[in-house]
TrEMBL record:
Keyword list, A-Z: Hydrolase
InterPro entries for the chain: PPM-type-like_dom_sf, PPM-type_phosphatase-like_dom
UniProt key word DNA-binding: no
Native organism: Amycolatopsis plumensis
Any one GO MF annotation of this record: protein serine/threonine phosphatase activity
EC number: 3.1.3.16
Designated name of the protein: PP2C family protein-serine/threonine phosphatase
Top-rank taxon: Bacteria
Domain PPM-type phosphatase: 10-222
Gene3D superfamilies the UniProt entry points to: PPM-type phosphatase domain
Enzyme class label: hydrolase
């Protein structure tokens, strides 16, 4: 799905169930009237069941609707409150909110990712909160299974454990691990470098590379364009 509004960046989102029994990924986007821009969120439910899917939808919606002036960390905490109150499931989450002087402020838990993209250079903004990264940072051996074990999540994270980053780039990419694990940075760059490509092509490429998970991408194009508005739900 491609969404545009006059004065806002053009952005795309795409999601595929892949070989899982259901799609437990979700995205959220919200622009408050008179606000500084669009807040984006992408959540990936922990597990392959209805509780995981509900947790992802709940987290993405609550995060995206958090007032921008409160910042992305508060958006993660708002998602946490909603998940704890409304679901039995859990999710990982990445949130991007407009920064005062352009670009985005980022917050995340788990292994959902954010990248900057200027049309040429892809920059990774997040570090996975996984057992693998924990041991890798300490120069200890890592097994493949550790890549899939998260050390923070929406339900469990303490405020000080929430990751933060900032970018001045107007181009932004949020992904679930069903996209960035099969593709890697080089694969993502190769897809986005092709003219006219975006979220749908990233998801298709991830599944074509043997992705075994739900695959979801939210892509904000580097340049603003003038176009018509296409209605998009807060979470899907």
């Amino acid at each position: 799905m491609i969404t545009t509004r006059p004065g806002y960046p053009r952005w795309h989102t795409a999601s595929a169930q892949g070989p899982r029994s259901l799609n437990a990924d979700a995205v959220g986007a919200y622009a408050a009237a008179g606000g500084p821009g669009i807040a984006f969120a992408l959540a990936d439910g922990v597990g392959d069941d209805p509780a995981a899917a509900r947790a992802a939808r709940t987290a993405a919606a609550a995060a995206a609707r958090t007032p921008v002036h409160k910042g992305p960390v508060e958006a993660v905490l708002a998602a946490q409150r909603a998940v704890r109150e409304q679901t039995l499931g859990d999710a990982v989450l990445v949130v991007a909110m407009p920064a005062a002087h352009g670009g985005y402020r980022i917050a995340w838990v788990g292994d959902a990712r954010a990248y900057s993209w200027d049309g040429t250079t892809l920059g990774r903004l997040t570090t996975d909160h996984t057992l693998a990264e924990f041991f890798r940072a300490r120069h200890q051996p890592v097994t493949p299974r550790m890549e899939h074990v998260v050390t923070t999540s929406v339900r469990t994270a303490q405020a000080h454990e929430i990751g933060t980053a900032e970018t001045t780039s107007p181009g932004l990419l949020l992904t679930s691990d069903g996209v960035h694990k099969p593709l890697t940075a080089g694969g993502i760059r190769a897809v986005l470098a092709r003219p006219g490509t975006g979220a749908a092509e990233l998801v298709e490429a991830a599944l074509a590379r043997g992705g075994s998970d739900n695959a979801t991408a939210l892509y904000v194009e580097p340049l603003e364009v003038d176009s018509t508005t296409v209605r998009f739900p807060v979470a899907a």
